[in-house]
């Protein structure tokens, strides 16, 4: 919050980001509501839910394109204008009676807009690195993470309530989304003179368009080069393994919790659906609290120690589910775990942004996030297989084994950082 209040250029960047993020979040939930009005509602809702994950899988392309951009700040401005135009187009199309061709085009618009948002987020990294000092980066990233988590938490509820208040007038709702991107564009456009002399604004690529086939080849060769370059930064590689372990354990834990709610009625708060929603909300609140904590106040907690605590709390959750099945211990641990993750994420991001070269930061971080995101479905599949093939208890014991491995790696990372 301190960086936001005292750094004018950072404040302008984040305000534009938050406004456009709110527009995207509002529409994502409303699009699912719109899908319910399709002739085959179940199929449409399923497609909308699956398609919502596609932009995350395309992060590596977004990062590559971000590093190919000549003027990073001007690229951010252009993306906001482009997204506003997309939602104006969407507002016109959504006025038609629901049909599969309209639904398909709306899906494509939503995918393109989300992908453009991912591209903008990677482009902004170089700009933020220019306007925020290295000492303030962790706090800045924590603030962004906290506000982003808050928007994700309340955006769906606000979107569902707003579309109901508008009597399901999707055209008007689409126009409101377009207005959010216009507002973000105007903030960046009016302030453009303040960013003109940044290193990221003066950076120029001189590579001409090579043709579709050669550009695709260049993308793959560049991605492999960036992956090899990533491995040369031992600290960043260590963080990648650490994040992968945390994601693997976290996704497995989430899967097993849902299965445990079915078996153990003592874990329920009311009913199954309410319990799932409550636990997710508690974790989100914890992450928000952790993200908003001034990072300079937790310098006594090293990153490896923070990582150890995150994994250790998952061990306590596993022990509780195996022997006690106490729902209040579970909620407390989920909240604490959320706070610890909220502290861990921005600190690691700040370390990586500081260490990585500016001209490749988007590409390298996109490779980083692509690798660690692959562990999310991996954890869910492994522990769901154990639970369904044997028992939920055996699956929890399997998770304990993964937790022990994670704790051992946290100690390895601590020694590596100590030597560095």
TrEMBL record:
Upper lineage is:
Bacteria, Bacillati, Bacillota, Bacilli, Lactobacillales
SUPFAM superfamilies, per database record: MFS general substrate transporter
- Entry keyword set: Cell membrane, Membrane, Transmembrane, Transmembrane helix, Transport
Q: Which Gene3D superfamilies does the record match to this protein?
A: MFS general substrate transporter like domains (1.20.1250.20)
Q: Where in the cell is it found?
A: Cell membrane
Annotated membrane topology: Multi-pass membrane protein
Q: Which residues form the Major facilitator superfamily (MFS) profile domain?
A: 1-195
Highest taxon of source: Bacteria
Give the protein's recorded name: Major facilitator superfamily (MFS) profile domain-containing protein
GO cellular component: a single term: plasma membrane
Q: Name one GO molecular function term.
A: transmembrane transporter activity
Which InterPro entries does the record match to this protein?
Answer: MFS (IPR011701), MFS_dom (IPR020846), MFS_trans_sf (IPR036259)
TM region positions: 12-37, 43-65, 77-96, 102-127, 147-166, 172-191, 229-249, 269-289, 301-322, 328-346, 367-387, 393-410
Its source organism is Levilactobacillus koreensis
| Pfam families cross-referenced by the UniProt entry | MFS_1
């Amino acid at each position: 919050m301190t960086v936001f209040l005292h750094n004018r250029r950072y404040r302008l960047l984040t305000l534009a980001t938050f406004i456009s993020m709110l527009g995207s979040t509002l529409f994502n939930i409303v699009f699912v509501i719109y899908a319910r009005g399709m002739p085959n509602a179940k199929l449409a809702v399923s497609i909308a839910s699956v398609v919502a994950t596609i932009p995350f899988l395309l992060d590596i392309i977004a990062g590559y394109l971000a590093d190919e951009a000549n003027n990073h700040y001007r690229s951010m401005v252009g993306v906001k204008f482009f997204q506003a135009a997309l939602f104006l187009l969407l507002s016109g199309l959504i006025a038609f009676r629901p049909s599969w061709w309209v639904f398909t085009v709306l899906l494509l618009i939503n995918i393109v807009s989300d992908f453009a948002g991912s591209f903008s987020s990677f482009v902004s990294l170089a700009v933020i690195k220019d306007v925020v000092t290295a000492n303030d980066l962790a706090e800045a990233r924590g603030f962004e993470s906290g506000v982003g988590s808050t928007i994700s938490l309340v955006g769906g509820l606000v979107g569902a309530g707003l579309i109901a208040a508008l009597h399901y007038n999707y055209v008007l709702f689409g126009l409101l989304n377009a207005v959010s991107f216009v507002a973000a564009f105007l903030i960046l456009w009016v302030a453009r003179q303040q960013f003109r002399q940044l290193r990221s604004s003066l950076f120029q690529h001189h590579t001409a368009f090579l043709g579709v086939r050669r550009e695709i080849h260049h993308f793959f060769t560049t991605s492999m080069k960036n992956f090899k370059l990533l491995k040369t930064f031992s600290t960043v590689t260590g963080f990648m393994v650490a994040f992968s372990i945390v994601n693997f354990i976290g996704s497995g834990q989430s899967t097993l919790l849902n299965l445990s709610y079915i078996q153990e009625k003592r874990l329920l708060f009311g009913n199954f659906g309410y319990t799932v929603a409550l636990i997710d909300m508690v974790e989100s609140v914890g992450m928000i609290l952790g993200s908003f904590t001034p990072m300079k106040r937790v310098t006594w907690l090293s990153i490896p120690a923070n990582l150890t605590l995150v994994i250790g709390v998952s061990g306590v959750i596993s022990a509780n589910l195996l022997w006690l099945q106490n729902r209040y211990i579970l909620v407390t641990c989920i909240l604490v775990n959320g706070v610890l993750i909220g502290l861990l994420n921005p600190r690691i991001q700040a370390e990586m942004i500081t260490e990585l070269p500016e001209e490749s930061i988007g590409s390298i971080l996109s490779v980083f996030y692509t690798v660690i995101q692959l562990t999310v479905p991996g954890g869910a599949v492994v522990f769901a297989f154990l639970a369904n093939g044997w028992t939920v208890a055996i699956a929890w014991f399997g998770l304990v084994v993964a937790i022990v491995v994670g704790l051992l790696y946290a100690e390895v990372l601590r020694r590596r950082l100590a030597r560095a």
